[in-house]
Write a structure and sequence with these properties.
- The structure is a single chain.
- The chain is mainly alpha-helical and 269 residues long.
- The chain has a domain at 63-241: Up-down Bundle (Cytochrome Bc1 Complex, Chain C).
- It is built from twelve helices and no strands.
- The radius of gyration is 26 Å and the shape is extended.
Length: 269
């Protein structure tokens, strides 16, 4: 390529980069400096949840095994497949079981989607459990990450409740008696046993009100709670300087260090 052609291309490229359209989409320069790296991360709706810098140890696959990312990926699969199943499932005791059976024979790829939803639910419980074990083993629950540990415990309980409420929806013998046993355990709660049992089932036994309550919790209530907690969880990971390791210095610590540096240099002289 000749020098004149390269000069024309550079001029065109400069005009494109300096145009209003380009600057409205890409608000910051190439991330070649720490400042530009921070600005790019802060200004992107998808990247702002991630920290600007993470420790090299935390980047190793053998450190976290991506259990948190796998759990989030399984939650996305459950959301997508769950919306698909909602088009064909009717939460009524008279036809709920038939709806599940019709997925395999009358709905295109219905059996595949239903099995993906079922297996993703089992795998999410396993991955979240392993993630909690990993966090505890590496001591990532210690200050300043103790609040995020509480959020993680709430996410773990939400995952278990999602699995528990979804177990009844096929309205088969396994789900019916599993929820019967589980709800009977709630009746032994001190002081509020009967109230807890009635509130959970909506009746004295597992019946149509129970199916409606579990369906609403499974497709609306608990997913919204889980999505909100995950947003806070990811945000706190970023604010705490990554998944584990020493937290980043605060602004006050940086200002104190910069103020003491000239004094130390003067004393050496």
């Amino acid at each position: 390529m000749s020098t004149s052609s390269r000069g024309i291309l550079d001029t065109i490229g400069a005009k494109v980069v300096e145009s209003q359209l380009w600057r409205s989409i890409f608000r910051h320069g190439y991330p070649d400096t720490p400042l530009n790296q921070s600005l790019v991360m802060m200004g992107n709706v998808f990247l702002h949840l991630h920290p600007v810098k993470v420790s090299r140890q935390a980047m190793k696959i053998t450190y976290s095994w991506c259990m948190g990312g796998i759990s989030f990926f399984l939650f996305i699969i459950l959301t997508v497949t769950g919306v698909f199943l909602m088009f064909y499932y009717i939460p009524a005791t008279a036809i709920a079981y038939d709806n599940i059976q019709q997925l395999y024979s009358l709905v295109t790829f219905g059996g595949l989607v239903r099995n993906m939803h079922r297996w993703a639910a089992h795998l999410m419980v396993i991955s979240v459990t392993l993630h909690m074990i990993r966090v505890f083993y590496h001591g990532a629950y210690k200050p300043p990450r103790e609040f995020n540990w509480v959020i993680g415990v709430a996410l773990f309980l939400t995952t278990l409740l999602l699995s528990f409420t979804g177990y009844l929806l096929p309205w088969d013998q396994i789900g019916y008696w599993a929820i019967t046993v589980g709800s009977n355990m709630a009746s032994y709660t001190p002081l509020i046993g009967d109230l807890a049992h009635t509130t959970l089932l909506g009746a004295k036994e597992v019946s149509q009100p129970t199916l409606i309550r579990f369906y609403v919790l499974h497709v609306i209530g608990l997913p919204l709670v889980g999505a909100l907690l995950m947003a806070v969880h990811f945000w706190r990971i970023r604010k705490d300087g990554g998944e584990a390791g020493p937290p980043p210095p605060s602004r006050r610590e940086l200002e104190m260090a910069s103020a003491q540096e000239p004094v130390q240099q003067g004393s050496l002289r």
